[in-house]
Amino acid sequence: VLARKSWIGTVAENVWAHGTGAINIDACRVGDSKNVPASPRGPEVPSQSPALRPQPHPIQVYQNPTLGFQMQISDLWQANNNSDGHTIVFTNAQGVNISVQSYNAAGQSLDLVQTQLEGSPSVSRISRVTFKGQPALSFSSTSGQGIAVIYNNKLFYIMGPNLNSEPVNTFSFL
């Protein structure tokens, strides 16, 4: 018996993401107790077969003037508006989530935000950094990495497993 988890997207995308996605059944056959020989090997599939090469994904600009930011995302990412009106969650085919939250920051400072973060049991390793040319706080939490930055009287929290890669590296303020 052979089973496979359903995948999202094309065979090529799943092969690229997971390093596997096909099985050559004839090459896997083995003889049984009646000494039935295994099937002869079929033709080799070149590792750079056009179907298995990663294909470029169209890039679009996700822009949210209400929250005050934009990012370039490929069609592998989906933007989901949270009902709270402050949060957008970007999800890719592997289930990786990146959230961007934006709140009114009138009267707030990074010092106050740092004090609030230090009071959270799920936050650690808080440090001062620069994010997109702005003073910011970098921190770790139970859900991954985080950035807190104040820009244009808005407090942004950006959370995800790796904030140094796409699409967060294309983030810009509006």
Task: Give a written overview of the molecule.
The chain has helices at 11-18, 25-28, 110-118, and strands at residues 59-64, 69-74, 77-81, 87-92, 97-104, 123-131, 134-141, 144-151, 154-160, 172-173. A hairpin with a 2-residue loop joins β8 (144-151) and β9. The longest helix has 9 residues, at 110-118. The chain is mainly beta and 174 residues long. The mean pLDDT is 80. The strands form 2 sheets. It has a 7-stranded antiparallel sheet with strand order 3-4-5-9-8-7-6, with helices on one face. It has a 3-stranded antiparallel sheet with strand order 1-2-10, with no helix packed on it.
Question: In summary, what is this structure?
Answer:
The protein has 174 residues and is mostly beta strands. Helix content is 12%, strand content 37%. Strand 8 (144-151) and strand 9 (154-160) form a beta hairpin.
Number of beta strands: 10
Using only CA atoms, what is the Rg?
Answer: 23 Å
Oligomer: single chain
Q: End-to-end distance, in Å?
A: 54 Å
* Helical/strand content category: mainly beta
Mean pLDDT score: 80
Low-confidence stretches: none
3D shape:
globular
Query: How would you characterize the largest beta sheet?
Result: 7 strands, antiparallel
Q: What proportion of the residues form beta strands (DSSP E)?
A: 35-45%
Query: Given the structure, what is the number of helices?
Result: 3
Question: How much helicity do the residues have?
Answer: 10-25%
Strand order across the largest sheet: 3-4-5-9-8-7-6
> Could you spell the SSE succession in H and E letters?
HHEEEEEHEEEEE
